[in-house]
Each structure stands twice: as structure tokens, then as C-alpha cells.
Design goal:
CATH architecture of the domain at 87-158 and 223-285: Roll
Strand content: 15-25%
Radius of gyration: 31 Å
Largest sheet: 8 strands, antiparallel
Number of helices: 24
Structural class: alpha+beta
Low-confidence stretches: 7-36, 82-87, 160-164, 375-383, 615-624, 654-660
Mean pLDDT: 81
Distance between the termini: 103 Å
Shape: elongated
CATH class of the domain at 87-158 and 223-285: Mainly Beta
Length: 660
Amino acid sequence: MMCRRSMYRRLGVSSFPFFCRFSTNRDVIVFHSLLYKPIDRVTRSTLVLHDLLKHTPKDHPDFPLLQDALRISQNFLSSINEEIDPRRTAVTTPKGEARQLVKDGFLVEVSESSRKLRHVFLFTDLLLCAKMKKTSVGRHQQYECKWYIPLADLTFQTLDDSDSSPSIQVLPEHEIEEMKIKISVLKSEIQKEKKAPKGQSRVDRLRKKMNEQESWLLLHSPTIPFRVHNKHGKSYQFLLSSDYERSEWRESIQKLQKKDLQTCLLSPVELQVLTSSCFKLRTVHNIPVTSNKDDEETPGLYGFLHVIVHSAKGFKDSANLYCTLEVDSYGYFVSKAKTRVFRDTMEPHWNEEFEIELEGSLFLRILCYENCYDKSLLNKDDNEIVDKIMGKGQVQLDPQTVQSKNWHMDVIEMNGIKVEFSMKFTSRDLSLKRTPSKKQSGVFGVKINVVTKRERSKVPYIVRQCIEEVEKRGIDEVGIYRISGVATDIQALKLVFDTNTKDILVMLSDMDINAIAGTLKLYFRELPEPLLTDRLYPAFMEGIALSDPAAKENCMMHLLRSLPDPNLMTFLPLLDHLKRVAEKEPINKMSLHNLATVFGPTLLRPSESEIAKAQHITSASDIWSHDVMAQVQVLLYYLQHPPISFAELKRNTLYYSTDV
């Protein structure tokens, strides 16, 4: 039998207990230096450990230490072995069990009041939060562990449980929208450069810039809090953009916690080995941005998805039920629509239609909730969702299926619940067209001067009534003009205004305020010519680009004076109305910039004939991304301007030429 001391010497240490117990920092350094020697040295040491363990009695005090050392060495060899099976999903725990990777993904953590992008790994017995280390070119990427929580000690923390929640830096929504527009412009430029000779080097530079912008968006967009707490230590907070995603993480953790889990405390070296193994174990390799996709991958759908949520069945008890719809864009999911609450039922029949804008979307998610009426939960922050998720599911948006003219009916099964819905898709090229109405007796799709002349009014009746109703009961509504109204309600209002029935006022007073706001937006969007006219559109684009404040002021006021009277007299009351809405920004969350983002393209986007003249731009989709930032800036300029009087503008007309 080999002498125990000689075996210790072959391992490169004078005393094995000293080597294995890591009682001081010096001991950790000794072990680290051994691990990072050439692989053959570690392999030989592992074989010696195996031999030593075989000849050591199980009741010997060194036996468990030898077991730990052998396990650590084997894990280390597995983690750095280049021939490793890429499907490997587990490492060995101190008890010799397999520590399986269950789920991983990129999440935004609130750390020291700032946002940090982390890669989070959920194992069968612990949750590990890591960040990617900066490495020099040519070296393998490595993770650094920021913290971990044994699942046996993990609880989900709510605001009521925490003494103080970390302050969350939330950017104004207009900054998020501006970045989306910049990314859209870059995408258009990349497509053009791909067709140009020798354009690859510029494509690479544009892709790098787009990656930076999409990464910024991924970091700053999420606002839904997801808190985890270590019963014996700290609390940590993530921000997610999707309640679906938060529910998935919570459910995965809770499912693992149903097992008989013991608290696992990792030594520094065990943590090092586990963190190193994450690089091989991970299932999500890149942050979810479009610039990381291959050219062959589907770019997703751009345009408008019309969805009708019909009904649901499979509930065990009566409840107050509603659904929300999420779609993905720019690498993350966002909530886009919400049905009404159907009360005290096991089979809700919503039959509500929504129009959802898609920006490179691949999936539609539907979440079904039970409405919570616990009054103690009403003081949550704006992004804290307290209603119970009854079920959730998603479908892939197959272009061949949804791009037909007919409705496509489908069913999502979720946790024993079946939600029935229909959908159809309209491409952005088609949705951007201003199509004149064939019937000139209505108001939608009819020139504004025709409507005002017929009504013998200065401002169309539909504009006056919608503005009045929004100011009466919608000016405090969170997201007014941004949140979509139910499409079926908007179409009903459109029909009433087009047929000029006597029931308009009664119908307006009973209608959801978001539907009324949506009807006003639809009216301006369907004008055969934009409110600020095709003729003046190029001048507006040039005027807003002027750098000299005085020159810009003169030009922008001159352009207003150049508008036809019906257009100007409609634009000015709308401008005043939007300013009054923005005064309530602390309540309704709608700033001047938010409102300019919503209304700018609607009031300025040229008609189809004008788009066709722009020969340097190949499609309606391109002109959207090319000019939309300027359209927003034009309206924002007037919203930020001191009050503008029609009479004052017309008085000044005497001193200026109206030729533009």
C-alpha cells in the first residue's frame, strides 16, 4: 500500500488536510495555483486523489475531505475540457448529486440604484446571478458570480415585506421611443448598404452601433419589479418588461422548492468552479437583440396585428377575469392591450378587438388574470401587478398564416384553460396609406374642408366632441392617447359619426374613454391628406432642421399661416387640448413629448401620392423610419411654443408672403 505522506507529496503539498481545508487565504491561493496549472498536471493529481480515496477507510477524518477534493477536481476538468458534450446541463454537488441547470436568461438587476444587465442561472438547488467578465481578444469569455441564494432560503419579497425598496431609475417614455426610432433608421440604412457595392464595412459599423442602441434599450425599458430575498441575508431586485416572464421565473423556482431542499453553502472554490461551468451550461448565449441575429433568421413582422379575444373556458370557479396581450419587439416583450374585466363567471365572452403595432415581432402572448379587489394592495407602485395569473400561453406569428386577408382563428391552452381568439395582419406599407373614402357623406376619409363646409363649422364636430369628452373624464387617465381602445368600440363610434345619428352624445358618454381617444386618432390618421398638408410637408421637414432659433421661429410660424383656414382652425384647438393633457402628466404619465410621439406622424405623415414622389426611398416602411423623428419634432415644437392665436397669426399674414 502506498504511503499516505508520499501520496500527499505527489499532489504537490506537504500535508493533505492543510491542502483541503482551505483554512486561510494562503491555502485558497495554493489551491487556485494548482488548478490553473497545465491540464495534464491536474489530471495526474485527480488520478492520485482517486487512488488515495480508494485506500482511505471511510471512517478516517480525511475521507470526506478527499471526496470533496476529487469532486472539485473532476468538475474543474469537465468545465475546461474543450471536448465537452455541448448538451451538458449539470455539475456535481458536494453530496455527489447532479446540480441541474433548469433555466437561464438575461435580466436587469437594480444594484446601487443603477441598472445592470446580469445573466441569471437557476439550478435545482440555487439561484446564481453572474456578469460577464471583460476578457482580452482571443481569450475565452468567463462569468463572475455577483451573488447566489440557496433555493431552501429563497423567498419572494413584496413591497409590503421590505422596509425600503431600491430606487428605480425610470427614463421618460419619449427617450425610449426616440431610441426605437433611431434603431429603425439604422435598420433601413443597413438594408440599403447591403445592396451597395463594397458596403460591407459600413454594414459592420452600423451593426455595431445598432447593437449598442438595442443593448441600451434592453437595459432601460423594463419596469416590472421581481424581488427575491435570502432569509439569511440580502434582498435583490430585477426589472422585467413582461409579467409573463416574471411568472415563468417565479413558477420555475416554486416548482423546485416543493422538493426536500437543504441549504447549500458553497466554498470559494466550489463557487468558482460552478461559475466557470455556467459558460458551458448556459442555454441563452447572447443578449436578445436583433443585431445578434443571423441574416437568414426571420426579421419578424412590421405593421399592425388585429386580434379579437373571443372567450375562455376551463375555469374551476367563478371569478372576475380579463386577458392581456404581449408581443415582442427590440428583443423583449411588452404588454400591448387589455380586455375588460368579465365579472363573476366561469366562461367569459369578451369578443373584443385590438389593433397592436408590431415592430419585428415573432410571438403573441396571452395572459389570463383574476382581478384582485384586495384594498390593501391598491397602494402598490405603478408597475406592481397584484392580480393573479390564471394561465398564460403564446403562439408564433407565422407570416404565411396571419398575412392573409381573412381572420385566422386559434386557441391557446394554458393550465387547463382554453382561450379562443382570432387574428389578421396588415403590413406597415399598407397601414401607412391614406385612403380617401368613396362616400363623401361621412367624415372619415373625407377632406377636412369638405366636412367643415357641410357642417357649417370651423372645426369638425367629431374633433370637438372627442376633445370635450376626453377633457371631461379622461384627462386623468393613465396613458390617455397612448393606450389602445377596443377596436370594436372605435369602429362603432366611427360608424355613428359617419352616419350622423342622434345617438352620438349618449354613446360617447357610455363609451370607454380610450376608445374615444382612439377614434380621434383614427380620424386624423384616415384623412386623405394630413392635417398639416402634403404641400407644406417638405417645408416642415426643412424648417424643423434649422439650427438658428430666430430663423426656425419665423419659418415655423410662417408655415402655420400658410395652412388652409379649416386645417389651421382645427390644429390650434387640438394643440391647446394636448397641452392641457400634458399639464396632468404627474397623473396621466403623458408628457408633451409622449403626445408628440403619438400625434406627430398622424398629423404630418404624407399621403400615398406624396410618398411615391420620394424616389430615393423605396417603400412606405422606409419613409416611416426616415421621417418619423422629424414629424415628432415638428409637433413638439408647437406644443412647447407659447400659446398661438389664430387671429394673431392672420394679422401677421399681412407682413409675410404666403408662397412656400
